[in-house]
TrEMBL record:
InterPro entries per record: 2Fe-2S-bd, 2Fe-2S-bd_dom_sf, 2Fe-2S_ferredoxin-like_sf, 2Fe-2S_ferredoxin-type, 2Fe2S_fd_BS, Aldehyde_Oxdr_Iron-Sulfur, Beta-grasp_dom_sf
UniProt keyword annotation of Cell division present: no
Sections of the chain in a coiled coil: none
One MF annotation (Gene Ontology) recorded for this entry: metal ion binding
Pathways per UniProt: Alkaloid degradation; nicotine degradation
PROSITE patterns hit by this protein: 2FE2S_FER_1 (PS00197), 2FE2S_FER_2 (PS51085)
Domain 2Fe-2S ferredoxin-type: 3-79
Keywords: 2Fe-2S, Iron, Iron-sulfur, Metal-binding, Oxidoreductase
Protein name: (2Fe-2S)-binding protein
Length: 171
């Protein structure tokens, strides 16, 4: 069965007809030609397909496109104005936080969402203080690692990824 779905992706409205079983990832890549979200595992285990939906992190290979009717979807391409870089994208460059680059768009989108969650006082398993007033404190490396644990890097660039996220969080 097919359905028409209206999505706003990186600030551009799209009306697309998809099979109701089409994942958001496949809709973005196959129907809209947006290739930064990667199909890594196709099982929600690697995070390379992470996008932001209405500001929240979403594993797009596990989500049906039709469920995001009217949502604002942001991929790595849409984090900043054309010709500019988002502070996290710049931090990834500054800290050499990628090798092959395959996971980088998902890592960056996840980090943007994660920093917003931390800023809004959402705890993780590594959070020492659950006091919402403590949300302004700097994120430690263990906290960053825990919050990013759903995003895998096959090249093992984790120390530089953590450094990049710390750099962006400090700004």
């Amino acid at each position: 069965m097919e359905a028409r779905v209206s999505l706003s992706v990186n600030g551009v409205a799209h009306d697309v007809v998809v099979d109701t079983r089409t994942t958001l990832l496949d809709g973005l890549r196959d129907r809209l030609g947006i290739f930064s979200p990667k199909k890594g595992c196709d099982h929600g285990q690697c995070g390379s397909c992470t996008v932001l939906v209405d500001g929240r992190r979403v594993i797009s290979c596990l989500s049906f496109a039709v469920s995001y009717e009217g949502s604002e979807i942001v991929t790595a391409e849409g984090l900043a104005e054309p010709g500019d870089l988002h502070p996290l994208q710049q931090a990834f460059i500054d800290q050499d936080a990628f090798q092959c680059g395959y996971c980088t768009p998902g890592q960056v989108c996840s980090a943007v969402g994660m920093l917003d969650e931390a800023k809004n006082g959402h705890p993780s398993h590594a959070t020492d203080d659950l006091d919402p007033d403590a949300a302004d404190e700097a994120l430690g490396d263990d906290e960053i690692r825990e919050r990013m644990s759903g995003n895998l890097c096959r090249c093992a660039a984790y120390p530089n990824i953590v450094a990049a996220i710390r750099q962006a969080a400090e700004r």
